[in-house]
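Subject: Predicted fold for DUF350 domain-containing protein, 137 residues

User T.R. writes:
Posting the sequence so we have a shared reference for the thread.
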Amino acid sequence: MEALLELELMKTAAYYSVSLLALIVFLTIFETVTKYKNWEEIKKGNIAVALATGGKIFGVANIFRHSIEYSDSLLMMLGWGVLGFALLLFSYFIFEFLTPSFKVDEEIARDNRAVGFIAMVISIGLSYVIGASIISR
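User M.O. replies:
I've generated the structure tokens; pasting them so everyone works from the same file.
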């Protein structure tokens, strides 16, 4: 396996595959913590859900971009990615906690695009902070 990862093409394919699988798992986790079904709402045209979900996808991908850049092994990359995702998920709960006057999930489910947009910006913005905090080799 180590010999295969020495080839840049195989290394790229491995990092891509693991990142894509992790993204699918993380989106599934996000789906379970929200009160709405992301893909059903997107299919119905709920822009707020699309914005929030797009921000989560971008955020997770950005975290993995940094974890790939600063890791010297596939396992370390996955470890940083999982930690970054956990921090992003924690940030989602903090956002809900810091808005006691309304429920973020309910507003997004109602297609409140302002809340969906802020959720997207929080996910993307904090992914840069999380990514920048990943320690290099």
